[in-house]
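Intended use. Records like the one below are meant for learning the mapping from a protein sequence to its folded structure. Do not use them to infer anything beyond what is encoded.
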Amino acid sequence: MNVFIIPSWYPSDTNPAWGIFCKEQAEALAFCYPQHNFGISLWGQNKKANLLYSRHFLHSFKKLAAFKKKGPDIKHIERNLVEYNTPALTWNRRVWRGNILEIISANETNLRAFQNTFGKADIIHAHVGYPAGYIAYELSKSFKIPYVITEHMSPFPFRYFINKGILIPELRTSMFEASRVIAVSAALKDTIKSYGIKKTVFIPNLVNENLFFPSKLHKVHSEKFIIFFLGSMIERKGVDVFLKAMQKMKNFEEIDLKIGGDGERWG
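Structure written out for the chain above:
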């Protein structure tokens, strides 16, 4: 089987942790199923050189002047796992649809390169309904390949993907036309279904059990109960709510709270 993967978020040199779960899942699948082939389609997701911001006009103009379309640049991660990168610029979706047509074209170039090496793709796997899901929808029409979407948005949908309670057309189309929509939590599955997307199933994110496993040791190194939070320091993770809840606990003095992660700082 040949699987073509389109991640909305993916690690880059400037954002090494963003979308790392997409890459790690692809690596796990390639390891567990060596008889199958996997291609990852990149166009510069989260790469600062490819992102243009109106509020940083001068920097964006310099990026635009320096940008050169090329590709695809091909990187072999494993024998059966390959990254295809055809650069495309990205900007606010409200301006010429965020260059989505050029991004779709870049993904078409990547798909052709993947198929030239491994043969026709059997399925397209998109991570997140937009932009990846919409790209998969367009490629599905052109290349006659079915696609599925794994949805990671939390909360679903992000505020800029909904208008007066209705999903934006691109997101709605990609979700309804997908063969399956995979939610990474049971609560997310119920939320997606509430928008009328009935072909939604729940499959949790993977865990590397060689790295994370229940400890057999019962030795206590501290008299306090230790809680460790690891994640992005962003609002939707609810770190501020977590801290406020901790302050209200009666046995707060008996708890040792450790927080790890990058992102916004909470005052």
